[in-house]
Amino acid sequence: MPVVLHGPAYSTYARTARLALEEKGVAYELNEVDIMKGAGASADHLARHPWGKVPALEHDGFLLFETFAIARYVDEAFPGPALQPADAKARARMTQICGVVDSYAYKPMVHDVFIQAVFVPAGGGTTDAAVFSGGLEQAGKALDALESLVVESEGLCGGGGISLADIHLAPVLTYFTMVPQGAEALAQRPLLSAWWKRIGERPSVVKTMPKLG
Length: 213
Known about the structure:
Layout: E1 3-6, H1 12-24, E2 29-31, H2 43-48, E3 56-59, E4 62-65, H3 67-77, H4 88-122, H5 129-149, H6 164-176, H7 180-187, H8 190-200, H9 203-207
Parallel strand pairs: 1-2
Antiparallel strand pairs: 1-3, 3-4
């Protein structure tokens, strides 16, 4: 049965779900629910996600929302390379990194830095310097924490491959590093910087790169 992912290509969380599908080699349809234009409040989408957020996944009559749940389902329901380490400690580290991204990295990096530096001026507004500065400070703290957790291997958690942690962080850093101060902050963390170069060359990451403007 077809897999349908509901969410816009520009969404970091929809992109994480897409990366899971791409890495597993799953054919899917992307239904671009443009939440920035109010599509998240439509009756159709609220039936998929009661808070009107993205992404939501449909597969064989099974409906699922929440990004981490979707990514885990994709990994466990379809054949292909495993996206969760077999080792309990590495798997716990993967979950920890995903939690750090959700709780401490996403808002400062995307909302406070990227949106203030890029979207607000593009819409004719003025960057809120206090929000931007505070976002950079909190982003730096998140980067320090992530730098301390990186294993020197292909993926963040080691084990010779990438995991859900990698595909959770990559979309957020994509936007953060589009801002010069964000790119500079990442460059100051050598392990994360080396990982960022590796992950950026993966076909799934290149294919799902958001097109802005």
